[in-house]
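Batch manifest, entry 17 of 40.
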Amino acid sequence: MKEIILSAVKSSQPLFQSKGLYLNIEIPEDLPAINADKRRLEQVLVNLIHNAVKFTKPGGEVVLGADVVPKGGAGVGEVRFAVRDTGIGIPAEDVSRIFERFYRVDKSRTGSGTGLGLSIAKHIVEAHKGLIWAESTEGQGSTFYFTIPIT
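Output type: structure tokens
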């Protein structure tokens, strides 16, 4: 798990430097194994990181984290990933639609992009039997979460 996260961070490092953003990584040493396509999970993380960088002003912060969420009953639990930023946030009325193909919150807010990154991330996460969602406060930032079951 840590290898996937650090690889996603490494490929995104030039973006942080060019924009003057702070990156914090909050990952426990003992994350359990999950049954996942490493390349695809890295793609999800990179998509989420790129969005965080895109919508965070210079001097802002992006936090990449992971933790274990236990499941009740006989379930083993899941690893929950989070990408949190101090960016512009998403209007409440748009949060439920951001994972739709080609959906862009406000075309004037983005210089580029097709509106496919979050949709692709959603399909990858769901193919791994996980969930993806976002929480956001306009003007304060967003946190994107996704879970992958522990093997």
